[in-house]
Give the backbone structure.
Amino acid sequence: MLNGKRMVAWGSALIGGGLIVAGICWKALAAGTPPILPTDLVELRDRHQRTLAAINVNDGIDQPEAGHIANIYSWEYLSGCGGALDPELAGGIWTSKHITGVAGKPSGEIVEVDARTGAVWSKSGPVFASFEAFRRDVLDGFTGRRE
């Protein structure tokens, strides 16, 4: 018996980063009880944390860093299944086409990363005015986006 808990299945694939994540998350229905994250989701959050910690905004955002930011943004805020293609720099902004699904179909969405500040946005997703605001939201809101 689940006794006040329900199972929420969650599975997705991040094509751009080559990461495949599938898991089962138990969500407590009782107020104030935090969800228990399965190992693969804990690993994904830890991977996000390590990846974001390695980005140094003080020297500007280079292509690999912009790619990491765009992939995490795509995963967390656009589709949960997909990623971002290699970013291209134009006018101080890295732009990366968002792809979705296991087949990696273009969604028409573009993720943009400011090459100087690490600010990140897209047409239909949230706008983060700084890399630090993005980093905080990714990590602090990780569990809540999966409930």
The CA atoms of residues 113 and 120 lie 4 Å apart. The two ends are 20 Å apart (CA to CA).
